[in-house]
Amino acid sequence: MSDKPKSLNFIEHIIEEDLANGLPREDLRFRFPPEPNGYLHIGHASSICLNFGLGQRYKAPVNLRFDDTNPAKEEQEYVDAIKRDVEWLGYSWDTERYASDYFQQLYDWAVLLIKRGMAYVDSQSSDEIAAQKGTPTEPGTNSPHRDRTVEENLDLFTKMKEGAFEEGAHVVRAKIDMASPNMLMRDPIMYRVLKKAHHRTNTDWCIYPMYDWTHGESDYIEQVTHSLCTLEFAMHRELYDWFLDQVYEPSKVRPKQREFARRNLSHTVVSKRKLLQLVEQGVVKGWDDPRMPTISGLRRRGYTPESIRNFADTIGIAKRENLIDVSLLEFHVREHLNKIAPRVMGVLDPVKVVITNYTEGYEEWLDAENNPEDDAAGFRRVPFSKELYIEREDFREEANRKFFRLKLGGEVRLKNAYIIKAESCTKDAEGNIVEIQCTYDPKSKSGSGTEESLRKVKGTLHWVSVKHAFEAEIRLYDRLFTDESPDTHKNKNFLDFVNPDALKTITGYLEPSLKEANIGDRFQFQRLGYFCVDPDSTSDKMVFNRTVGLRDTWAKIKEKP
Protein backbone atom coordinates (compact mmCIF):
# COMPACT_ATOMS: atom_id res chain seq x y z
CA MET A 1 0.00 0.00 0.00
CA SER A 2 1.28 3.47 -0.85
CA ASP A 3 2.48 5.69 1.99
CA LYS A 4 1.85 8.84 -0.08
CA PRO A 5 -0.50 11.27 1.66
CA LYS A 6 -3.96 11.44 0.16
CA SER A 7 -4.50 14.47 -2.07
CA LEU A 8 -6.99 17.11 -0.96
CA ASN A 9 -10.35 17.52 -2.66
CA PHE A 10 -11.38 20.98 -3.83
CA ILE A 11 -13.47 21.61 -0.69
CA GLU A 12 -10.44 20.90 1.49
CA HIS A 13 -8.37 23.24 -0.67
CA ILE A 14 -10.94 25.99 0.02
CA ILE A 15 -10.71 25.35 3.77
CA GLU A 16 -6.91 25.31 3.70
CA GLU A 17 -6.91 28.61 1.81
CA ASP A 18 -9.27 30.15 4.36
CA LEU A 19 -7.03 28.99 7.19
CA ALA A 20 -3.98 30.42 5.42
CA ASN A 21 -5.83 33.73 5.03
CA GLY A 22 -6.44 34.07 8.75
CA LEU A 23 -9.50 32.01 9.66
CA PRO A 24 -8.72 30.60 13.13
CA ARG A 25 -8.70 26.82 13.05
CA GLU A 26 -10.70 26.76 16.29
CA ASP A 27 -13.52 28.64 14.53
CA LEU A 28 -14.09 25.87 11.98
CA ARG A 29 -17.58 24.42 12.21
CA PHE A 30 -19.59 22.31 9.76
CA ARG A 31 -23.15 21.05 9.60
CA PHE A 32 -25.26 18.38 7.96
CA PRO A 33 -28.68 19.97 7.27
CA PRO A 34 -31.31 17.42 6.16
CA GLU A 35 -34.95 18.34 5.67
CA PRO A 36 -37.07 15.82 7.62
CA ASN A 37 -39.46 15.11 4.73
CA GLY A 38 -38.27 11.58 3.96
CA TYR A 39 -35.59 9.02 4.70
CA LEU A 40 -31.95 9.64 3.80
CA HIS A 41 -30.63 7.93 0.67
CA ILE A 42 -27.23 6.97 -0.72
CA GLY A 43 -26.76 10.50 -2.10
CA HIS A 44 -27.10 11.91 1.40
CA ALA A 45 -24.49 9.41 2.57
CA SER A 46 -21.87 11.23 0.49
CA SER A 47 -22.85 14.53 2.09
CA ILE A 48 -22.80 12.98 5.57
CA CYS A 49 -19.35 11.51 4.96
CA LEU A 50 -18.11 14.83 3.56
CA ASN A 51 -19.28 17.05 6.42
CA PHE A 52 -18.54 14.68 9.28
CA GLY A 53 -15.30 13.61 7.60
CA LEU A 54 -14.19 17.25 7.52
CA GLY A 55 -15.09 17.51 11.18
CA GLN A 56 -12.85 14.54 11.93
CA ARG A 57 -10.01 15.78 9.73
CA TYR A 58 -9.93 19.24 11.28
CA LYS A 59 -11.12 18.21 14.76
CA ALA A 60 -14.00 20.64 14.31
CA PRO A 61 -17.59 20.33 15.58
CA VAL A 62 -20.35 19.27 13.19
CA ASN A 63 -23.96 20.14 13.88
CA LEU A 64 -26.89 17.98 12.83
CA ARG A 65 -29.49 20.58 11.86
CA PHE A 66 -32.96 19.77 10.63
CA ASP A 67 -34.26 22.35 8.15
CA ASP A 68 -37.83 21.91 9.34
CA THR A 69 -39.67 24.83 7.73
CA ASN A 70 -42.47 22.94 5.94
CA PRO A 71 -44.83 21.17 8.37
CA ALA A 72 -46.95 19.99 5.44
CA LYS A 73 -44.29 17.41 4.54
CA GLU A 74 -42.21 16.90 7.68
CA GLU A 75 -42.69 14.32 10.42
CA GLN A 76 -40.99 13.20 13.62
CA GLU A 77 -40.63 9.74 12.05
CA TYR A 78 -38.23 11.23 9.52
CA VAL A 79 -36.25 13.05 12.22
CA ASP A 80 -35.80 9.80 14.15
CA ALA A 81 -34.81 7.88 11.00
CA ILE A 82 -32.22 10.49 10.01
CA LYS A 83 -30.59 10.44 13.44
CA ARG A 84 -30.53 6.65 13.40
CA ASP A 85 -28.91 6.60 9.94
CA VAL A 86 -26.20 9.13 10.78
CA GLU A 87 -25.28 7.23 13.93
CA TRP A 88 -25.30 3.90 12.09
CA LEU A 89 -22.85 5.31 9.53
CA GLY A 90 -20.50 5.88 12.47
CA TYR A 91 -20.75 9.62 13.06
CA SER A 92 -21.56 11.76 16.12
CA TRP A 93 -22.79 15.32 15.93
CA ASP A 94 -21.75 18.11 18.25
CA THR A 95 -25.21 19.58 18.78
CA GLU A 96 -28.65 18.72 17.49
CA ARG A 97 -30.28 21.80 16.00
CA TYR A 98 -33.50 22.69 14.23
CA ALA A 99 -34.34 25.63 12.01
CA SER A 100 -37.51 25.86 14.11
CA ASP A 101 -35.25 26.79 17.05
CA TYR A 102 -34.68 30.08 15.24
CA PHE A 103 -38.23 30.97 14.17
CA GLN A 104 -38.40 33.93 16.56
CA GLN A 105 -34.98 35.27 15.55
CA LEU A 106 -35.83 34.90 11.86
CA TYR A 107 -39.10 36.73 12.43
CA ASP A 108 -37.34 39.53 14.27
CA TRP A 109 -34.83 39.90 11.44
CA ALA A 110 -37.69 39.96 8.90
CA VAL A 111 -39.30 42.80 10.86
CA LEU A 112 -35.94 44.60 10.75
CA LEU A 113 -35.79 44.22 6.95
CA ILE A 114 -39.31 45.59 6.61
CA LYS A 115 -38.38 48.59 8.75
CA ARG A 116 -35.37 49.21 6.52
CA GLY A 117 -37.54 49.05 3.42
CA MET A 118 -35.86 45.87 2.25
CA ALA A 119 -38.89 43.56 2.51
CA TYR A 120 -42.62 43.93 1.96
CA VAL A 121 -45.92 42.07 2.14
CA ASP A 122 -47.29 41.04 -1.24
CA SER A 123 -51.00 40.24 -1.52
CA GLN A 124 -50.97 38.74 -5.00
CA SER A 125 -51.69 35.11 -5.80
CA SER A 126 -48.84 32.73 -6.51
CA ASP A 127 -49.80 32.68 -10.19
CA GLU A 128 -49.66 36.49 -10.38
CA ILE A 129 -46.27 36.57 -8.67
CA ALA A 130 -44.93 33.91 -11.04
CA ALA A 131 -46.22 35.81 -14.11
CA GLN A 132 -44.41 38.96 -12.98
CA LYS A 133 -41.07 37.17 -12.51
CA GLY A 134 -40.12 37.60 -16.15
CA THR A 135 -37.81 35.22 -17.98
CA PRO A 136 -34.04 34.69 -18.01
CA THR A 137 -33.84 37.12 -20.94
CA GLU A 138 -36.58 39.56 -19.88
CA PRO A 139 -36.80 41.49 -16.59
CA GLY A 140 -39.67 41.01 -14.22
CA THR A 141 -42.18 43.67 -13.25
CA ASN A 142 -42.69 45.13 -9.80
CA SER A 143 -45.51 43.97 -7.61
CA PRO A 144 -48.23 46.62 -7.16
CA HIS A 145 -47.62 46.17 -3.42
CA ARG A 146 -43.86 46.70 -3.57
CA ASP A 147 -44.09 50.29 -2.31
CA ARG A 148 -46.40 49.73 0.61
CA THR A 149 -45.46 51.82 3.60
CA VAL A 150 -43.41 50.36 6.40
CA GLU A 151 -46.36 50.75 8.75
CA GLU A 152 -48.73 48.89 6.44
CA ASN A 153 -46.22 46.08 5.90
CA LEU A 154 -45.60 45.69 9.63
CA ASP A 155 -49.33 45.61 10.34
CA LEU A 156 -49.98 42.95 7.69
CA PHE A 157 -46.97 40.88 8.80
CA THR A 158 -48.13 40.95 12.42
CA LYS A 159 -51.60 39.80 11.38
CA MET A 160 -50.09 37.04 9.24
CA LYS A 161 -48.22 35.83 12.31
CA GLU A 162 -51.37 35.97 14.41
CA GLY A 163 -53.31 33.83 11.95
CA ALA A 164 -55.69 36.52 10.73
CA PHE A 165 -55.33 35.50 7.07
CA GLU A 166 -55.96 32.32 5.12
CA GLU A 167 -53.22 30.43 3.34
CA GLY A 168 -52.21 32.15 0.11
CA ALA A 169 -53.61 35.55 1.07
CA HIS A 170 -50.21 37.19 1.65
CA VAL A 171 -46.49 36.49 1.46
CA VAL A 172 -43.44 38.44 2.57
CA ARG A 173 -40.89 39.14 -0.16
CA ALA A 174 -37.39 40.55 -0.02
CA LYS A 175 -37.06 43.79 -2.01
CA ILE A 176 -34.00 43.15 -4.18
CA ASP A 177 -34.08 43.57 -7.98
CA MET A 178 -36.81 42.48 -10.39
CA ALA A 179 -34.39 42.94 -13.27
CA SER A 180 -31.60 40.79 -11.84
CA PRO A 181 -30.14 38.28 -14.29
CA ASN A 182 -30.42 35.75 -11.45
CA MET A 183 -34.12 34.91 -11.31
CA LEU A 184 -33.79 33.95 -7.64
CA MET A 185 -32.93 37.56 -6.80
CA ARG A 186 -36.21 38.89 -8.20
CA ASP A 187 -37.88 39.66 -4.88
CA PRO A 188 -37.85 36.11 -3.46
CA ILE A 189 -40.51 35.00 -1.00
CA MET A 190 -39.35 34.91 2.62
CA TYR A 191 -42.58 33.88 4.42
CA ARG A 192 -45.91 32.28 3.60
CA VAL A 193 -49.04 31.61 5.65
CA LEU A 194 -49.30 27.90 6.48
CA LYS A 195 -51.87 26.79 9.02
CA LYS A 196 -50.52 23.35 9.78
CA ALA A 197 -49.19 21.88 13.01
CA HIS A 198 -45.41 21.63 13.17
CA HIS A 199 -43.80 18.48 14.60
CA ARG A 200 -41.96 20.59 17.20
CA THR A 201 -43.73 23.96 17.54
CA ASN A 202 -47.25 22.55 17.08
CA THR A 203 -49.56 25.49 16.21
CA ASP A 204 -47.45 28.27 17.71
CA TRP A 205 -46.79 29.69 14.23
CA CYS A 206 -49.12 30.41 11.33
CA ILE A 207 -46.28 31.60 9.11
CA TYR A 208 -43.22 29.67 8.08
CA PRO A 209 -39.95 30.93 6.60
CA MET A 210 -38.77 29.76 3.18
CA TYR A 211 -35.63 27.68 2.76
CA ASP A 212 -33.46 30.42 1.22
CA TRP A 213 -34.23 32.84 4.02
CA THR A 214 -33.78 30.21 6.72
CA HIS A 215 -30.72 28.29 5.64
CA GLY A 216 -28.01 30.92 5.54
CA GLU A 217 -29.30 32.71 8.62
CA SER A 218 -29.32 29.40 10.53
CA ASP A 219 -25.71 28.84 9.46
CA TYR A 220 -24.91 32.31 10.76
CA ILE A 221 -26.67 31.75 14.10
CA GLU A 222 -24.71 28.52 14.56
CA GLN A 223 -21.49 30.17 13.34
CA VAL A 224 -20.94 27.53 10.67
CA THR A 225 -17.86 28.43 8.65
CA HIS A 226 -18.45 26.32 5.54
CA SER A 227 -21.95 25.58 4.31
CA LEU A 228 -21.58 22.77 1.78
CA CYS A 229 -24.42 21.87 -0.56
CA THR A 230 -25.00 20.28 -3.94
CA LEU A 231 -24.74 22.01 -7.30
CA GLU A 232 -28.44 22.79 -7.69
CA PHE A 233 -27.91 25.44 -5.00
CA ALA A 234 -25.12 27.22 -6.90
CA MET A 235 -27.55 29.86 -8.19
CA HIS A 236 -28.80 30.31 -4.63
CA ARG A 237 -25.39 31.42 -3.38
CA GLU A 238 -25.95 35.05 -4.43
CA LEU A 239 -29.20 35.12 -2.43
CA TYR A 240 -27.53 33.31 0.48
CA ASP A 241 -24.95 36.09 0.61
CA TRP A 242 -27.52 38.89 0.18
CA PHE A 243 -29.54 37.67 3.14
CA LEU A 244 -26.37 37.39 5.24
CA ASP A 245 -25.47 40.98 4.30
CA GLN A 246 -28.62 42.15 6.07
CA VAL A 247 -27.74 40.70 9.47
CA TYR A 248 -23.97 40.13 9.46
CA GLU A 249 -21.84 41.68 12.19
CA PRO A 250 -18.09 41.93 11.43
CA SER A 251 -17.16 40.55 14.85
CA LYS A 252 -18.76 37.19 14.03
CA VAL A 253 -17.91 34.37 11.64
CA ARG A 254 -19.53 34.76 8.23
CA PRO A 255 -20.59 31.42 6.70
CA LYS A 256 -19.40 30.59 3.19
CA GLN A 257 -21.56 28.51 0.86
CA ARG A 258 -19.75 26.22 -1.57
CA GLU A 259 -21.20 23.59 -3.86
CA PHE A 260 -20.18 20.08 -4.89
CA ALA A 261 -21.67 17.74 -7.46
CA ARG A 262 -24.46 15.34 -6.62
CA ARG A 263 -23.44 11.76 -7.43
CA ASN A 264 -26.35 9.88 -8.96
CA LEU A 265 -26.45 6.10 -8.66
CA SER A 266 -27.40 3.89 -11.60
CA HIS A 267 -30.52 1.71 -11.63
CA THR A 268 -32.27 3.78 -8.99
CA VAL A 269 -33.72 7.21 -8.20
CA VAL A 270 -32.68 9.48 -5.34
CA SER A 271 -35.39 12.13 -5.50
CA LYS A 272 -37.28 12.10 -2.19
CA ARG A 273 -40.48 12.90 -4.08
CA LYS A 274 -40.03 9.86 -6.33
CA LEU A 275 -38.98 7.64 -3.45
CA LEU A 276 -42.14 8.69 -1.62
CA GLN A 277 -44.10 7.83 -4.77
CA LEU A 278 -42.63 4.32 -4.71
CA VAL A 279 -43.76 3.95 -1.11
CA GLU A 280 -47.24 5.44 -1.53
CA GLN A 281 -48.00 3.47 -4.71
CA GLY A 282 -46.94 0.20 -3.12
CA VAL A 283 -44.07 -0.48 -5.51
CA VAL A 284 -42.02 -1.12 -2.37
CA LYS A 285 -43.13 -1.92 1.17
CA GLY A 286 -41.74 1.16 2.89
CA TRP A 287 -38.81 3.54 3.14
CA ASP A 288 -36.64 0.73 4.54
CA ASP A 289 -37.52 -1.78 1.84
CA PRO A 290 -34.21 -3.44 0.87
CA ARG A 291 -34.81 -2.49 -2.77
CA MET A 292 -34.72 1.19 -1.86
CA PRO A 293 -31.52 3.29 -2.08
CA THR A 294 -32.25 4.70 1.37
CA ILE A 295 -29.66 4.18 4.08
CA SER A 296 -32.34 2.35 6.08
CA GLY A 297 -33.05 0.10 3.09
CA LEU A 298 -29.36 -0.63 2.53
CA ARG A 299 -28.90 -1.42 6.23
CA ARG A 300 -31.86 -3.82 6.17
CA ARG A 301 -30.51 -5.45 3.03
CA GLY A 302 -27.24 -6.19 4.81
CA TYR A 303 -24.91 -3.39 3.76
CA THR A 304 -22.33 -2.31 6.32
CA PRO A 305 -21.56 1.28 7.29
CA GLU A 306 -17.93 0.65 6.37
CA SER A 307 -18.89 -0.34 2.82
CA ILE A 308 -20.94 2.83 2.33
CA ARG A 309 -18.19 5.04 3.77
CA ASN A 310 -15.64 3.34 1.51
CA PHE A 311 -17.92 3.87 -1.47
CA ALA A 312 -18.29 7.58 -0.65
CA ASP A 313 -14.53 7.87 -0.25
CA THR A 314 -13.91 6.18 -3.60
CA ILE A 315 -16.26 8.38 -5.65
CA GLY A 316 -14.90 11.45 -3.87
CA ILE A 317 -16.05 15.05 -4.19
CA ALA A 318 -16.30 16.63 -7.63
CA LYS A 319 -17.55 19.77 -9.36
CA ARG A 320 -19.41 17.97 -12.12
CA GLU A 321 -22.37 15.62 -11.78
CA ASN A 322 -22.10 12.12 -13.15
CA LEU A 323 -23.75 8.73 -12.90
CA ILE A 324 -22.00 6.21 -10.66
CA ASP A 325 -22.56 2.57 -11.55
CA VAL A 326 -24.23 0.75 -8.67
CA SER A 327 -21.77 -2.10 -9.23
CA LEU A 328 -19.15 0.07 -7.49
CA LEU A 329 -21.30 0.18 -4.35
CA GLU A 330 -21.83 -3.57 -4.63
CA PHE A 331 -18.08 -4.08 -4.99
CA HIS A 332 -17.45 -2.30 -1.70
CA VAL A 333 -20.01 -4.33 0.24
CA ARG A 334 -18.62 -7.57 -1.21
CA GLU A 335 -15.10 -6.52 -0.28
CA HIS A 336 -16.04 -5.76 3.31
CA LEU A 337 -18.36 -8.72 3.86
CA ASN A 338 -15.70 -11.03 2.47
CA LYS A 339 -13.53 -10.01 5.42
CA ILE A 340 -16.13 -10.18 8.19
CA ALA A 341 -19.01 -12.47 7.18
CA PRO A 342 -18.99 -16.06 8.50
CA ARG A 343 -19.25 -18.76 5.82
CA VAL A 344 -22.28 -20.98 6.16
CA MET A 345 -24.13 -23.44 3.96
CA GLY A 346 -27.62 -23.15 2.60
CA VAL A 347 -29.36 -24.67 -0.41
CA LEU A 348 -31.90 -22.52 -2.23
CA ASP A 349 -33.03 -24.84 -5.04
CA PRO A 350 -32.66 -28.31 -3.56
CA VAL A 351 -32.39 -31.74 -5.05
CA LYS A 352 -31.88 -34.74 -2.75
CA VAL A 353 -28.68 -36.75 -2.67
CA VAL A 354 -28.76 -40.20 -1.04
CA ILE A 355 -25.37 -41.74 -0.15
CA THR A 356 -26.18 -45.41 -0.63
CA ASN A 357 -23.13 -46.79 1.17
CA TYR A 358 -23.48 -44.52 4.22
CA THR A 359 -24.82 -46.24 7.35
CA GLU A 360 -28.58 -45.82 7.79
CA GLY A 361 -29.43 -43.63 10.80
CA TYR A 362 -25.81 -42.66 11.39
CA GLU A 363 -24.78 -38.99 11.61
CA GLU A 364 -21.57 -37.15 12.35
CA TRP A 365 -20.57 -33.58 13.06
CA LEU A 366 -17.81 -32.12 10.94
CA ASP A 367 -15.54 -29.13 11.52
CA ALA A 368 -16.19 -26.19 9.21
CA GLU A 369 -14.06 -23.05 8.99
CA ASN A 370 -16.04 -19.88 9.70
CA ASN A 371 -14.00 -17.44 7.65
CA PRO A 372 -10.66 -18.12 5.94
CA GLU A 373 -10.08 -14.34 5.82
CA ASP A 374 -10.21 -14.12 9.62
CA ASP A 375 -7.92 -16.36 11.67
CA ALA A 376 -9.84 -15.51 14.84
CA ALA A 377 -13.20 -16.63 13.42
CA GLY A 378 -12.61 -20.23 14.42
CA PHE A 379 -14.65 -23.28 13.45
CA ARG A 380 -18.19 -24.55 13.90
CA ARG A 381 -19.74 -28.01 13.72
CA VAL A 382 -22.07 -29.02 10.85
CA PRO A 383 -24.09 -32.26 10.75
CA PHE A 384 -23.63 -34.87 8.01
CA SER A 385 -25.96 -37.78 7.28
CA LYS A 386 -27.08 -40.23 4.61
CA GLU A 387 -29.51 -37.81 2.91
CA LEU A 388 -28.37 -34.37 1.78
CA TYR A 389 -29.59 -31.46 -0.30
CA ILE A 390 -27.43 -29.89 -3.00
CA GLU A 391 -28.31 -27.17 -5.50
CA ARG A 392 -30.27 -28.49 -8.47
CA GLU A 393 -27.96 -26.68 -10.91
CA ASP A 394 -24.98 -28.51 -9.43
CA PHE A 395 -26.01 -31.81 -11.07
CA ARG A 396 -26.30 -32.92 -14.68
CA GLU A 397 -26.82 -36.37 -16.04
CA GLU A 398 -24.44 -35.60 -18.85
CA ALA A 399 -21.98 -32.73 -19.12
CA ASN A 400 -18.83 -31.75 -20.96
CA ARG A 401 -15.37 -31.58 -19.44
CA LYS A 402 -15.83 -27.94 -18.42
CA PHE A 403 -18.62 -28.85 -16.00
CA PHE A 404 -16.81 -29.35 -12.69
CA ARG A 405 -19.83 -30.13 -10.59
CA LEU A 406 -21.65 -33.43 -10.11
CA LYS A 407 -22.54 -35.63 -13.10
CA LEU A 408 -23.29 -39.30 -13.53
CA GLY A 409 -20.08 -41.23 -13.15
CA GLY A 410 -18.26 -38.16 -11.87
CA GLU A 411 -16.86 -37.17 -8.49
CA VAL A 412 -16.99 -33.98 -6.41
CA ARG A 413 -15.98 -33.07 -2.90
CA LEU A 414 -18.66 -32.01 -0.48
CA LYS A 415 -17.39 -28.95 1.40
CA ASN A 416 -15.83 -29.92 4.75
CA ALA A 417 -16.92 -33.54 4.18
CA TYR A 418 -16.28 -36.39 1.75
CA ILE A 419 -15.74 -37.13 -1.93
CA ILE A 420 -18.88 -38.56 -3.51
CA LYS A 421 -19.60 -40.16 -6.89
CA ALA A 422 -22.94 -40.00 -8.71
CA GLU A 423 -24.09 -43.50 -9.64
CA SER A 424 -27.69 -42.98 -10.77
CA CYS A 425 -30.69 -40.65 -10.47
CA THR A 426 -34.47 -40.87 -10.16
CA LYS A 427 -37.00 -38.74 -12.08
CA ASP A 428 -40.66 -37.93 -11.61
CA ALA A 429 -43.40 -38.30 -14.23
CA GLU A 430 -42.47 -34.96 -15.82
CA GLY A 431 -38.84 -35.93 -16.17
CA ASN A 432 -37.56 -33.80 -13.30
CA ILE A 433 -34.72 -35.25 -11.25
CA VAL A 434 -35.93 -35.80 -7.69
CA GLU A 435 -33.07 -37.86 -6.25
CA ILE A 436 -29.43 -38.61 -7.00
CA GLN A 437 -27.91 -41.83 -5.72
CA CYS A 438 -24.23 -41.51 -4.80
CA THR A 439 -21.50 -43.43 -3.08
CA TYR A 440 -18.87 -41.88 -0.85
CA ASP A 441 -15.26 -42.66 0.00
CA PRO A 442 -15.19 -43.10 3.81
CA LYS A 443 -11.47 -42.36 3.91
CA SER A 444 -11.74 -39.04 2.06
CA LYS A 445 -12.96 -36.96 4.99
CA SER A 446 -11.68 -33.37 4.78
CA GLY A 447 -8.85 -32.62 7.21
CA SER A 448 -8.33 -36.25 8.19
CA GLY A 449 -4.87 -36.35 6.66
CA THR A 450 -5.37 -39.66 4.86
CA GLU A 451 -4.07 -40.24 1.38
CA GLU A 452 -7.66 -40.41 0.12
CA SER A 453 -8.53 -37.05 1.73
CA LEU A 454 -5.70 -35.41 -0.20
CA ARG A 455 -6.95 -36.70 -3.52
CA LYS A 456 -7.74 -33.85 -5.92
CA VAL A 457 -11.15 -33.54 -7.53
CA LYS A 458 -12.08 -30.47 -9.52
CA GLY A 459 -15.47 -29.61 -8.04
CA THR A 460 -16.49 -28.69 -4.49
CA LEU A 461 -20.18 -28.35 -3.60
CA HIS A 462 -22.03 -26.90 -0.63
CA TRP A 463 -24.79 -29.01 0.93
CA VAL A 464 -27.01 -29.44 3.97
CA SER A 465 -28.17 -32.52 5.82
CA VAL A 466 -31.86 -33.13 5.11
CA LYS A 467 -32.75 -34.23 8.67
CA HIS A 468 -30.90 -31.31 10.28
CA ALA A 469 -31.59 -28.42 7.90
CA PHE A 470 -34.40 -25.99 8.61
CA GLU A 471 -36.62 -24.07 6.20
CA ALA A 472 -36.26 -20.31 5.95
CA GLU A 473 -37.78 -17.62 3.78
CA ILE A 474 -35.17 -16.26 1.40
CA ARG A 475 -35.74 -12.89 -0.24
CA LEU A 476 -33.63 -12.49 -3.36
CA TYR A 477 -33.24 -8.78 -3.99
CA ASP A 478 -31.94 -7.24 -7.18
CA ARG A 479 -31.77 -3.77 -8.72
CA LEU A 480 -35.00 -1.83 -8.49
CA PHE A 481 -34.92 -0.57 -12.09
CA THR A 482 -33.89 -2.23 -15.32
CA ASP A 483 -32.67 1.09 -16.79
CA GLU A 484 -29.50 2.67 -15.44
CA SER A 485 -31.06 6.15 -15.38
CA PRO A 486 -34.84 5.61 -15.13
CA ASP A 487 -35.85 9.22 -14.41
CA THR A 488 -34.06 10.87 -17.35
CA HIS A 489 -36.39 9.78 -20.16
CA LYS A 490 -38.49 12.68 -21.42
CA ASN A 491 -41.45 10.69 -22.71
CA LYS A 492 -41.54 7.92 -20.14
CA ASN A 493 -42.42 7.65 -16.48
CA PHE A 494 -39.61 6.34 -14.29
CA LEU A 495 -42.04 3.71 -12.99
CA ASP A 496 -42.08 2.16 -16.48
CA PHE A 497 -38.61 0.81 -15.71
CA VAL A 498 -39.35 -0.94 -12.42
CA ASN A 499 -37.62 -4.33 -12.45
CA PRO A 500 -40.29 -7.05 -12.05
CA ASP A 501 -37.57 -9.36 -10.72
CA ALA A 502 -36.29 -6.95 -8.07
CA LEU A 503 -37.65 -9.32 -5.42
CA LYS A 504 -38.15 -13.07 -5.58
CA THR A 505 -39.18 -14.97 -2.45
CA ILE A 506 -38.26 -18.65 -2.14
CA THR A 507 -37.81 -21.28 0.55
CA GLY A 508 -34.24 -22.23 1.39
CA TYR A 509 -32.78 -25.04 3.52
CA LEU A 510 -30.09 -23.87 5.93
CA GLU A 511 -27.59 -25.49 8.26
CA PRO A 512 -28.82 -25.57 11.88
CA SER A 513 -26.24 -23.10 13.25
CA LEU A 514 -28.20 -20.29 11.59
CA LYS A 515 -31.15 -20.84 13.92
CA GLU A 516 -29.18 -18.88 16.52
CA ALA A 517 -28.62 -15.86 14.23
CA ASN A 518 -29.86 -12.47 15.35
CA ILE A 519 -31.60 -9.79 13.31
CA GLY A 520 -29.03 -7.94 11.21
CA ASP A 521 -26.41 -10.71 11.34
CA ARG A 522 -24.62 -11.12 8.01
CA PHE A 523 -23.34 -14.30 6.39
CA GLN A 524 -21.86 -15.62 3.21
CA PHE A 525 -23.95 -18.51 1.93
CA GLN A 526 -21.10 -20.37 0.27
CA ARG A 527 -21.12 -20.18 -3.52
CA LEU A 528 -24.38 -18.18 -3.45
CA GLY A 529 -23.83 -14.70 -2.07
CA TYR A 530 -24.13 -12.57 1.06
CA PHE A 531 -27.28 -12.65 3.16
CA CYS A 532 -28.53 -11.09 6.39
CA VAL A 533 -31.30 -11.77 8.88
CA ASP A 534 -34.34 -9.57 8.24
CA PRO A 535 -36.35 -7.92 11.07
CA ASP A 536 -39.41 -9.88 9.91
CA SER A 537 -37.80 -13.01 11.37
CA THR A 538 -39.50 -14.78 14.27
CA SER A 539 -38.59 -17.77 16.39
CA ASP A 540 -40.84 -19.87 14.15
CA LYS A 541 -39.76 -18.46 10.79
CA MET A 542 -36.39 -17.03 9.85
CA VAL A 543 -36.16 -14.56 6.97
CA PHE A 544 -32.92 -13.84 5.13
CA ASN A 545 -32.28 -11.06 2.62
CA ARG A 546 -29.76 -11.40 -0.17
CA THR A 547 -27.46 -8.41 0.10
CA VAL A 548 -25.49 -9.08 -3.07
CA GLY A 549 -24.31 -12.04 -5.10
CA LEU A 550 -20.73 -13.23 -5.07
CA ARG A 551 -20.20 -11.79 -8.54
CA ASP A 552 -21.61 -8.94 -10.62
CA THR A 553 -24.10 -10.75 -12.87
CA TRP A 554 -25.24 -7.48 -14.43
CA ALA A 555 -21.82 -6.96 -16.00
CA LYS A 556 -22.45 -10.06 -18.12
CA ILE A 557 -25.92 -8.83 -19.06
CA LYS A 558 -24.53 -5.49 -20.28
CA GLU A 559 -21.98 -7.29 -22.47
CA LYS A 560 -24.70 -9.12 -24.39
CA PRO A 561 -25.79 -7.49 -27.69
What does this structure look like?
By secondary structure, the protein is α/β, with parallel strands linked by helices. The strands form eight sheets. The protein has a seven-stranded mixed beta sheet. A seven-stranded mixed beta sheet has the order 23-20-21-22-14-17-24, with no helix packed on it. Helix 3 links the parallel strand 2 and strand 3.
Low-confidence runs of at least 5 consecutive residues? none
Q: For the record, give the distance between the C-alpha atoms at the N and C termini, rounded to a whole number.
A: 39 Å
Shape: elongated
Based on secondary structure, the structural category is alpha/beta
Q: What is the share of helical residues?
A: 25-40%
Number of helices: 13
Estimate the strand proportion: 15-25%
The tally of strands reads 29
| Rg from alpha-carbon coordinates | 31 Å
Largest sheet: 7 strands, mixed
Task: Record the strand order, biggest sheet.
Answer: 12-27-28-29-25-26-13
Mean pLDDT comes to 95
Concise summary:
The chain is an alpha/beta fold and 561 residues long. Helices cover 26% and strands 24% of the residues.
Describe how the helices and strands are arranged:
Layout lengths: L9 H11 L9 E3 L9 H17 L3 E5 L9 H13 L7 E3 L4 H13 L3 E4 L3 H6 L18 H13 L8 E4 L14 E5 L13 E3 L1 H12 L3 E5 L6 H11 L8 E5 L2 E3 L6 H9 L14 H7 L3 H11 L6 E3 L1 H15 L2 E2 L1 E2 L2 E6 L7 E7 L9 E7 L1 E5 L3 E2 L9 E2 L3 E4 L4 E9 L5 E8 L19 E2 L2 E2 L4 E8 L25 E8 L11 E4 L3 E5 L9 E7 L3 H7 L2
Parallel strand pairs: 1-2, 2-3, 8-9, 10-11, 12-27, 14-22, 18-19, 20-23, 25-29
Antiparallel strand pairs: 4-5, 5-6, 6-7, 13-26, 14-17, 15-16, 17-24, 20-21, 21-22, 25-26, 27-28, 28-29
Helix pairs in contact: 2-11, 7-8, 11-12
